[in-house]
Write a structure and sequence with these properties.
Blueprint lengths: L2 H7 L1 H54 L3 H38 L1 H29 L12 H59 L1 H5 L5 E12 L2 E12 L3 E5 L6 H8 L7 E7 L5 E3 L13 E3 L12 H7 L9 H6 L2 H20 L15 H12 L6 E5 L7 H17 L3 E5 L3 H7 L2 E6 L2 E6 L1 H5 L2 H8 L6
Parallel strand pairs: 3-8, 3-9, 6-7, 7-8
Antiparallel strand pairs: 1-2, 1-4, 4-5, 9-10
Helix pairs in contact: 2-5, 2-10, 3-4, 8-10, 8-11, 11-12
Length: 477
């Protein structure tokens, strides 16, 4: 049977329905959080506007309750400060021009220029101060008019009371909106959870045979994998298991079939023979051969490529948000109309991207364009982007390619951090043996598509077949 037809008729159709339901369920769980944030932002804006209007209402009373000498002194200080700031650039320009004249014509010429130009600016400053004294003259200290202080104090108390009433009103409106929205979300989630459980139950029944072949500690099992290209056996009867939470390294000479195997796992290639069993985010053991390539990310598997795939004309933060595309439930109509649902999803993904950058100590680069960053930083950014889809397994295709020793050491720390902090299994193809041996729990060595050895880094280093594949046979052997 044609693989695409098998997919449409079998497990794939169920998986699509389940993952779409899961996406809606996930969105609903995030919706209330971002609805609350939006309400808080609007309420804060209203309170700031009230504060500005309150100050305007209180200002005349405050001035009446303040001695005239103090009012004039403060007004003079404010306007003088603004004028002084306005003169700062011209004064700096005079100093720079004076230095150039001193270099070309001597110190005397520079000093003469400085005295002349600064004298003009000083005169303007003195004239402005005279105008200020005329506008806001010094007056003899006098008490505020009778009753002005009491009027200002009462008005201040009234404004505080009005603000408190406004805060109470806004809090009540917020509670009502969240309660109504929460009731709707709960009703939707009950139905979605029932559908999700039903889909998972059906999948568990259809995948029962797969589950029996995969123990609880294994996240992926590759069995008798073959990939032939016009008679060339790129992958030749390869089998191994990957434990959940491991950093699993795949090594081998150029042309050994490493990237071909990755492409079979992610369904860029449909394997000639063999099965790839994988435990998805719901605990169901599925055969990845039942998926199309664009569906694999829904299972929790993401990958990087040998070459960087950052979009050059948008910021690092926006590049990360692209990695969350599988969680968008807004369709084309939402995009055209810029609906509330789309805006909430954008906020949710932006907040998640910021969290990822902060946890990987990369937040300082969030507004940079990729073209302005070093290759090592871009490699770490690409790793950060994989976390946006909340993966269970990350497949890294030569992540250290093009990095120097210091950048490779930093990359090793990032890989460990991702595994430990984000509960990911890492599947790594790499030629840098120092990186592989320092971060991997298990290493599998292949050559010409066949298994050479599998074990701990120490066992692989000491394996005779691996040494022969990398170093060749000794003379006379």
């Amino acid at each position: 049977m044609d693989l695409n037809l098998k997919y449409r008729m079998g497990v794939g159709r169920l998986v699509n329905k389940r993952d779409k339901t899961f996406g809606e369920y996930t969105y609903n769980n995030r919706y209330l959080k971002f609805l609350e944030q939006e309400i808080d932002a609007k309420n804060e804006k209203k309170l700031k506007l009230f504060e500005i209007e309150s100050k305007k209402r209180l200002l005349p009373l405050e001035m009446e309750a303040t001695p005239k000498s103090q009012v004039n002194s403060e007004l003079r200080a404010q306007e003088l400060d603004a004028f002084t700031k306005k003169q700062s650039l011209p004064r700096r320009a005079v100093e720079q021009s004076a230095k150039r004249k001193a270099t070309k014509q001597g110190e005397a010429a520079g000093d003469a220029y400085r005295v002349q130009k600064l004298g003009i600016l000083d005169k303007k400053l003195a004239d402005f101060i005279s105008q200020l004294l005329a506008k806001y003259p010094d007056v003899e200290e006098a008490a505020a008019p009778e009753g002005a202080i009491e009027a200002y104090s009462k008005a201040t108390s009234d404004e505080v009371k009005k603000r408190s009433e406004l805060e109470t009103k806004l809090a009540q409106e917020k509670a009502n909106i969240l309660k109504t929205a929460g009731t709707k979300v709960d009703r939707k989630n009950v139905k979605l959870k029932q559908s999700l459980d039903a889909f998972n139950k059906q999948l568990a029944a259809q995948c029962a045979g797969n589950s029996a072949e995969l123990d609880d500690k294994t996240i992926m099992s590759i069995k008798n994998m073959k990939m032939h290209f016009s008679g060339i056996k790129a992958v030749d009867d390869l089998s191994f298991d990957i434990k959940e939470g491991d950093i699993f390294g795949l090594i081998g000479p150029n042309g050994a079939g490493k990237t071909t195997l990755f492409n079979c796992i992610t369904q860029f290639y449909k394997a000639t023979d063999g099965t790839i069993l994988y435990r998805d985010r719901f605990g169901n053991v599925v055969n990845l051969g039942d998926y199309q390539s664009h569906e694999v990310a829904d299972t929790g598997i993401v990958r990087t490529f040998q070459n960087l795939a950052m979009v050059p004309l948008i910021s690092v933060l926006d590049n990360l948000m692209i990695g969350a595309h599988i969680y968008y439930n807004s369709g084309l109509a939402h995009q055209f109309l810029n609906t509330k649902k789309l805006r909430y999803e954008e906020k949710a993904n932006r907040a998640k991207a910021m969290e990822v950058l902060e946890r990987l100590n990369l937040v300082q680069y969030k507004d940079y364009l990729p073209s302005g960053l070093s290759y090592g930083i871009l490699k770490k950014m690409e790793l950060a982007r994989t976390l946006m889809s909340e993966p269970r397994m990350i497949i890294l295709d030569e992540p250290a390619a093009g990095l120097n020793d210091a950048e490779t050491e930093e990359l090793a720390e990032v890989i460990r951090k991702i595994r430990d902090d984000f509960n990911c299994t890492i599947f790594l193809v790499e030629h840098d043996m120092n990186l592989v041996m320092s971060v991997c729990d298990t290493v599998c060595a292949i050559s010409f598509g066949k298994m050479l050895a599998i074990g701990t880094p120490e066992q692989i280093q000491n394996d005779a077949l691996v040494q022969q594949a990398y170093l060749g046979e000794e003379e006379g052997a």
